[in-house]
Amino acid sequence: VMTSMAHLQEEKLRLQEELLGLQEKLAAQESDELSRSLQLQGQVETLKAKLLEQAQEISRLRSELGGTDVEKHRDLLVAENEHLRQEMKACEGELRELRQQQQVPCQDCAHLQENARLQERLSQLQQEAEEMRSKLVELDLEVQQKTNRLAEVELRLKDSLAERAEEEERLSRRLRDSQETIASLKSQPLQIKYIIKTVEVESAKAKQALCESQSRNQYLQEQVGMQRQVLKEMEQQLQSSQKTAAQLRAQIMMYEAELERTHGQMLEEMQAMEEEKNRAIEEAFSRAQVEMKAVHENLAGVRTNLLTLQPALRTLTHDYNSLKRQVRNFPLLLQETLRSARAEIGQAIEDVHSTNRELLRKYRRELQLRKKCHNELVRLKGNIRVFGRVRPVTKEDGEGPEAANVVTFDADDDAVLHLLHKGKQVSFELDKVFPPQASQEEVFQEVQALVTSCIDGYNVCIFAYGQTGAGKTYTMEGTAANPGINQRALQLLFSEVRGKAADWDYAISVSAAEIYNEALRDLLGKEPQEKLEIKLCPDGSGQLYVPGLTEFSVQSVEDINKVFEFGHVNRATECTNLNEHSSRSHALLIITVRGVDRSTGLRTTGKLNLVDLAGSERVGRSGAEGSRLREAQHINKSLSALGDVIYALRSRQGHVPFRNSKLTYLLQDSLSGDSKTLMMVQVSPAEKNTSETLCSLKFAERVRSVELGPVSRKAELASWPSQEQLEVTEGPPGDSPGTAAPSGRGHASPSPGHLSSRAASIRRKLQTSG
Ligand code: ADP
Ligand code: MG
């Protein structure tokens, strides 16, 4: 039903659009007709103007001629013309009206009637014109009559003139007779006298009569002149009136022709307009009929649709009513559903909570397990590792045989190092050996696993061991352009901490201390000369702490650099010769990493102790005295104590002698338990340092080769040398021929020198993997 309704709507819209289009077309036609009528109006206007001109011409002529009957008649005609023009205007107005009314299909009779009426009027006018023409003829006749009469008058005038001439003649003859008589009389004196007297009397009478007749004659002559003049004037008048009449006749003819032409034009235009109008009306009518038909058809379609829709509507109404009922019931239903949904959601949340709790429990267990496994792994690998690093030959080594390189490496095994000692090659095996060309970066790569374990809460110690000038400080601190482990470790810690920032909150702090002559000093404190004490935590945890040791919180590399600089400045101001001083003291950088797991609240604390040890060279042997001797004793003591502690730890002795030196005591909790230790043994490759190099390597090998088993522990216990003993054992290593050096394979069984380094490596790996 809906679709059919929509369809019908569409149909309706379409029809409306069509209707609009048709209306537009009609409007266009109307405007067309309007423009045409405007054109016609323009023409009419011009005609009007012409007519006006002509009327003016007529009036001018009339004023020239004075009003005659003809002119009056002309005036009448002009007025009639004017009237007709007005009528025409009215007709045009009507035409316009009719055109405007054309939107409604036109009923043509009114137009036709109007047309007929106009035509009637036109014929009437024509009749009138005809009448006027006849009147004009009459007038012509009149003029003719008048002319005839004038001729008669002329004739009579001639007659009277002739009579007058005769009279004159007669009178003049009498005058002559009289004069003759007078003359004859004169000739007869008495008689004549009498006669004269009579004549005189008579002549007086004659004279009077003559005078009279002369004056009469004069009068008559004057009259004749006058009459002639009048005649002349009348002739002139006649001529001019004839001319005017001819002119007028021509004008009338012209006007008539004009009128006829205009009328014809008008008729033609009207006819054309009529035709056009009829055509437009017909077209519109036919279109309207077609449209009507279409509309009718549509209507029929709509009607049938409606008929089919009605039942659908009924079902819809029914549906609507039922829906209405449902809607009325909806709030109740909704409430019920919401209640149940809420209960379900609550249940689900509860489930999720319990699952979460379970997961958290499992996670914690896994964490513990992981740590345990890690510890086990560390235990198996040995948590004390020994690396060797050989520095390059420097300018300070001088030239000649003393500066010759005595250290060589094994191409196949990066854990083996050979030292040329007294013409013989002594081999040592450590966990890893860095040749002189090894970069700071490469060294740090081997160390970074230890550093990161700090973040997991492990304590780590990295020691740089070796004689002065072997590169301890270079390895730990490095140069500004090529920093050592200290700065790289802190940088790594920062980046690691950033990586874990999503789950953990970490705080990194740094302390720097120095141990000189068994005295601990704070390198970052305000009073560096103050000796610090190491104390047990009063909380009974067995933890150690150094009251007053400054701890700087660091967040960036810039912070570290500031701290290092501060430490250096402090160290330098406290001694006269920094180089010498630093070679006699242990420098410690203690980095503490504290973390909190945001989800579990688990807390970890890891300590990274980076120790640049005092020079291991044997000063005591050269018979030093005073402060130099004391220094040497302290250094020997502390380095021996470090060896003892490491030994005790590796051999898992019950007692570890941490307290034997400040250094081991301070690092107690970083050396025990599951802590990790790295000993970086620095050696010089120069020939002149061979004996010190040998000592350092022996120390390294001994530290590394402490066996874990109880038997070897015992054996180790018996053979662990003190720092002094290291000196003593340094003798010609040729006790047993074929053995190149003090063994690197455990003290119980010195390894034969002919063992290939490859085999040694395999054995080492087996050893470390348990
Ligand atoms: P130590 O601290 O053991 O007394 P230094 O670290 O002061 O020794 O090193 C002594 C000299 O040797 C320094 O000039 C140092 O730059 C240089 N040196 C040490 N190790 C290296 C190395 N691996 N590469 C280049 N130069 C080194
Ligand atoms: Mg140094």
Average pLDDT: 82
User: What ranges have pLDDT less than 50 throughout 5 or more consecutive residues?
Assistant: 707-770
* CATH class (first level) name of the domain at 384-573 and 582-620 and 627-705: Alpha Beta
Name the shape in a single word: elongated
Give the helix/strand class: alpha/beta
Radius of gyration: 77 Å
CATH topology value of the domain at 384-573 and 582-620 and 627-705: Kinesin
Distance between the termini: 87 Å
What hetero molecules are bound to the protein chains? adenosine-5'-diphosphate, magnesium ion
Describe the biggest sheet?
10 strands, mixed
Helix content: 55-70%
Please supply descriptive tags for the structure shown above.
single chain; 770 residues; alpha/beta; Kinesin; three-stranded antiparallel β-sheet; 15 strands; 65% helix; disordered C terminus; binds adenosine-5'-diphosphate; binds magnesium ion
Description:
The structure is a single chain. With 770 residues, the chain is an alpha/beta fold. Among the domains are: 282-381; 384-573 and 582-620 and 627-705, Kinesin motor domain (Kinesin, 3-Layer(aba) Sandwich). The protein is built from 16 helices and 15 strands. Strands 1, 5, 6, 7, 8, 9, 12, 13, 14 and 15 form a 10-stranded mixed beta sheet that branches. A 3-stranded antiparallel beta sheet has the order 2-3-4, covered by helices on one side. The longest helix has 192 residues, at 190-381. The two termini are 87 Å apart. 22% of the residues are buried. Mean pLDDT is 82; it is low at 707-770. The site of magnesium ion (MG) has 5 residues, from helix 6 and helix 9. Residues 383-706 form the Kinesin motor domain. ATP binds at residues 466-473. Minus-end microtubule-dependent motor protein. Involved in apically targeted transport. Required for zonula adherens maintenance. Belongs to the TRAFAC class myosin-kinesin ATPase superfamily. Kinesin family. It is a peripheral membrane protein.
